[in-house]
Amino acid sequence: MKLITFANTLALLASTIYLLATQVAMALPSPETHLLQRVNHTGTIEEVFPQLEAEHPGFTQSVASISARPDDKSYDKRAEGVVIGQGIKYLRDLHLTCWLNPHSCGRVSRSYNAAIYTCNNNGIKLGPDCSVIANYAQALRNKCSFIDGFYDSTCEGQAWDINNWNVNVYKDKC
Predict the structure, then answer these.
(1) Which among 61, 67, 91, 152 is least buried, having the fewest CB atoms inside 10 angstroms?
(2) Do 21 and 53 reside in the same domain of the chain?
(3) What does DSSP assign to residue 76?
(4) pTM
(5) Other CB atoms within 10 A of residue 164 CB
């Protein structure tokens, strides 16, 4: 179970690094090393992912896509970025599994008219760590933010996991 959690965490880390398009130093266990030993890869994400895929067949990114609402001056579904940040912190501090029922959506955080939802498009129940959902919400906050004049940033968007579930961030009445 810890290996699966480690693998999920590692995949999320890889996708987060990809989303932020920064220099990356990643580590994965290999068959030749003990689980606690690490093999490091340094470079841009474009350089590291092919190395990892060659050395660890089946290694893939977790995030399939991230999309934001077009900047069409329609603010009705944009949530305050600061409040979404508080929801992200809440989810990270839980240290729990956020279970997703088959073919359903559920709200995992909502306050001050800002919400984080998850949707499971699979026919089976899924249980990602709440911190994984928080990381997807953070990626949305980073990539799908808008500055509305003199106001604080707002955000709205959807991030899809390769396992056919997604995280949504938007304005929702409390």
Answers:
(1) 152
(2) yes
(3) T
(4) 0.61
(5) 13
